[in-house]
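Repro:
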Amino acid sequence: MIRFALAQLNPWSGHCDANSDHIEQAIHTAHQQDADWIVFSELVVTGYPIYDAVWSLKPAVDAAVTRLLSLSHQFPALHMVVGLPVYQESGAIANAAVVIHNGQVQHGYAKHRLPNQDIFFESRYFQPGGGPTIIEDRGARIGITICEDAWGGASVEPIASYESVDILLNLSASPYGIHKQAQRLQQFGAVAQACQATVIMVNQVGGCDGVVFDGGSFCLDKTGQVVHQLPHFEPALSVYTWDPASPSETVGADVDPMAGVHAALVLGIREYVKKSGLDRIIVAVSGGVDSAVVAALAVDAVGPEHVHGLALPGLFSSEGSIADAVALANNIGISLDIQPITDLVDAVMQQTQVVSWFANPNSVVEENVQARIRGVLTMAYANQQPGALVLATGNKSELAVGYCTAYGDMCGGLAPIGDLYKTQVYALAQYMNRATIRIPESTQTKPPSAELKPNQVDQDTLPEYAVLDAILMGYIESGQSADQLVHAGYDADTVSAVIRMVKQSEHKRHQAAPVIKVSARAFDWGWRQVMAS
């Protein structure tokens, strides 16, 4: 029988001293709970990701190891499995796990499989590891892996070398995705069955820029069933008792997909604000569903007293939209200023008439002037509030096809729903209204509109969102070609138009605020395209 403490922490990238404080607290807790082993997440000492900062962190990592060795002298019976970079004399760095026991670093393991897609650039920083690391304790053979090592399949190294272990530890920094936990359970379950071993996976929790780590650490028995589960989206420490003579009962591991999206976005906003040293959020609320959802997410992240709304109606803003903005502010408890922009728009448009090349400004000029004035005022308001962050309110559908204005409604330091398609935004709004009405019903039922010209609706320019999003998901998430999409049943002209809009809008996405990643291919992380193509 061996008692494993799973330490699911929220490390702060590059802040080794603060991370060491949390590690030390977890070690004390594990000792109080009579744990024999404590397992942390990948690169817990430095936080993950750390990008180029890894090259300058060696002194801080060395200090953390010294501190851990001192703790190990206090608790000599406790095996500490800690993720950290190991700096070699050759200049190479390993993404490693060390086992500290009885005051010494007794074992080390270097990550084999170094991913280089999406948010990962590991081969830029690390050298791959060599053979497996297997430790014997109380008659059990315990193997160590790090994150991606367990995603290659049972026949691929290093998993192929662990067929004889009883317990396989995995230190992970695995980002959240809408279906990621199900994928983890399937993948690690296959590993457990192939190795006929208990799998213990400890995942990081917290946010780093637009990346959210959801925790959800777990233990699987040799059949791949979940026998121990830690919570999602919050730090936790829990002890699992491995006893081959007494099989553990399985536990439920289902997560409502939209609940996960909501929790991820709230955590992402909260972490970005906290780790940026900010304390206030500004949202331009138009009466539409996107800005309403963003404002409500901000309230869930930092509280209504730290969120302020700006309603900036123009000549074409409907009374219903202004009423919806006011109702939203009342529902979620935020302060709201209403500042009409018609006079400012008129002043700018009058100025264009004295410029020779603006003799006959087209309709797009006036539409974009409205959006850009809103952006100017929102950013100006934030400048007046020390520690304020403007949240951009664009969704993934808009970012994909360019249905957004550069230097206008794209203004902001973070785009919380920039990885959610419009149809998903509506689904999230419904989820957020599950207990009480927060997003006004009329906001969700009226035809979506930018309200930049008379009687405008989004579908004047775009296909119905259900069709648009289906095409975008196929093209962006699944990498389907135009021919494949047409073969799947979508209209050829519509597919061609959508793909053309996606390509023409690449330059906007290069200037957009970072999004909070919830999909497999988020703009700014998993999507790299040529701007002029």
